[in-house]
Amino acid sequence: MESKLSADELCEAFRAFIKNRGGRFTPERKAIVEGILQVGKHFVIEDLIAVLEKQRFRVSMATIYNTINELLAASFLVKYNIQDKSFYELGYMQPKHSHQICTMCGRISEFQNPDLDEAVRGQKYKRFTLADYSLMVYGICSVCKGQLKRANRKNKI
After folding, report:
1. Which of 74, 77, 78, 103 has its CA 20 to 30 A from that of 92?
2. Rounded distance, CA 108 to CA 75, Å?
3. Residues 6+ apart with CB under 8 A from 82
4. Chain CA centroid to CA 70, Å
């Protein structure tokens, strides 16, 4: 589920959102948006900070968190709380997908299922209007499963 969204497109859309709310699109906010595109999928705040530090762009923690909150309010970012951590992912102009989370290593991967999407959107909800949905499937990834098998074989010997 790779994004074909450019930094310019995302910055311009966010600039319009910020301006509409009476705010300013500052160089710091631009650096944060560009950093999000560089950091990749399913990032934690520390990953974003590392990208900004690597670029030698100094941004206060307050500005980072305020910008993240603005991006969440604009639905440009999506926040997931997984295993006591907050992960973020670009949500703007992205195809609908669900997540597989390994309960051992915490690895997050994505999958698409048009039938699932159709079922959720086609569901009749009683006194409720669907805005969006998110599916998290928890289990053990193939790497961790292989490690468990090897450890079990080793313990039996």
Report:
1. 103
2. 20
3. 101, 106, 108, 136
4. 15
> Tens of pLDDT along 28-73?
999 999 999 999 888 999 999 999 999 888 889 999 999 999 999 9
b/e map of 32-50 (b: 16 or more CB within 10 Å)? bbbbbbebebbbebebbbe
Judge whether 101 and 82 are in contact, CB under 8 Å: yes
Asked if 51 and 37 touch (Cβ cutoff 8 Å), the reply is no
Give me the half-sphere count of Cα atoms (radius 13 Å) on the Cβ side of residue 29.
21
Query: Measured between alpha carbons, how far is 54 from 139 in angstroms, rounded to an integer?
Result: 34
CA distance 147 to 9: 43
> In angstroms, how far is the first alpha carbon of the chain from the final one?
43
Q: Which residue has the tokens 């949905």?
A: 133
DSSP annotation of 3:
-
**Where do runs of H (alpha helix) occur along 6-113?**
7-20, 27-39, 45-54, 61-73
**pTM of the predicted protein model:** 0.74
Beta bridge partners of 100: 109, 137
CA-atom Rg of the chain in angstroms: 19
